[in-house]
Amino acid sequence: MGIKSRQDKKLFVLDTNVLMHDPSSIFRFAEHDIFLPMVVLEELDRAKKGTSEVARNVRQVSRFLDELMSSASKQDIDSGLPLPCSAKMRNGSNGNDNGSNCGHLFFQTQLQPKELPPTLPGNIPDNNILGTTLALAEMAPQRHITLVSKDINLRIKASIIGIHTEDYHNDQVLDDVNLLYTGEFELPTGFWNTHSKDVDSWQEDGHTYYKVTGPDTDGWYVNQCLYMDGDQPFEAIVRKKEDEHAIIEVVNDYRSSKHAVWGISARNREQNFALNLLMDPDIDFVSLLGTAGTGKTLLALAAGLAQVLDQNRFREIVMTRVTVPVGEDIGFLPGTEEEKMTPWMGALMDNLEVLTQTEGGQWGRAATDDLLRSRIRIHSLNFMRGRTFLNKYIILDEAQNLTPKQMKTLITRAGPGTKIVCLGNVAQIDTPYLTETTSGLTYVVDRFKDWPHGGHITLLRGERSRLADFASETL
What we know:
By secondary structure, this protein is α/β, with parallel strands linked by helices. It has three domains: 11-166, 5'-nuclease (Rossmann fold), CATH 3.40.50; 178-250, no CATH class; 257-474, 3-Layer(aba) Sandwich (Rossmann fold). 32% of the residues lie in helices and 18% in strands.
């Protein structure tokens, strides 16, 4: 058995960046076969040193390959190493499943002389992978061969010379970012007329609750925000959802100065929903999406200050964000971790200036320095591994630049009494190989929508200034 004999299976040639991005990608192609060119192994070897996320992924790939090859002979390698049929089988199997329905892993075991077109001169790794793929297609013309790479330029070159190519899609949370959960739902115009017979209402601790029964409740999520526009606007949050009914609570109105949070009032419906989620003690995780100027950082910081200094719900605010380049050292210049992170925290300083001016009065200008010193901590993501935060209010800014694995690493740092707020804009991603559908922020929004202690809202309207709004629309 070899590459030529398994004509009913597709053959995927993996680029190095796929393995660097997802170490378990060799197990993600179901019953189909995988081919690794020798130049890919060479690139993995060069990238294995260091403490970066890429280096850790490369070392994990090497461990997977070593496990698969631990008891294989040269003949076994030539005929293809059987892969587990699923991740569950991989966790409980030693990799020796010889079932014909499982995929096989092939290595480049011989020189495959296939000259590239004159338009692709040189011996760079990308061109070497293209040449190997062309040689495979010539060796096994009956097989469907696909080059999988996250490098767009390599995919373009492959298409030009007639190689079928695809991006690596297994890590995509959604097919289209427009399908991402927004956190709110507009009730139809005649909602109360059609549900008036099936609605019970009561008041408890100054809050109004409704028990709604009907088919419309099937698609609701706990902590989803409901609204109805018109002459009698209505805004509520789903508090409990059962098989045939849901309990919804009318939200607090933070638009008036009387109910302002640390001097900040909501300017639109989405901001009002956001403040309700941020101030709710039963919600441990909040994600806020929105473009520049929608108020994400200001709302999160105002809610944090109110709950740390006024309500004593948390001990302190921890502010952090991704430094670019992601995961690299923040430098060897003199200074503490907070002093090195200060240049990245311009958004924090800008919003603190607004909040301390709003509070005013006897606090004075010294309040800014006092708040920074006593109750606001600035930390780098590079040193989060192994830590546990107790009774902290954690704000993660620019969360769209995190991978799902990095996001998991951060969120699992939360100890008892800690609340995490993730802020970001998936349209502004700076991390290589991350897209709107593979970002860690998209990942957590989709995964936390079913959790009763998580909340999400997408902020739509910019509230900075008429100049900023005009620039956003016309430039």
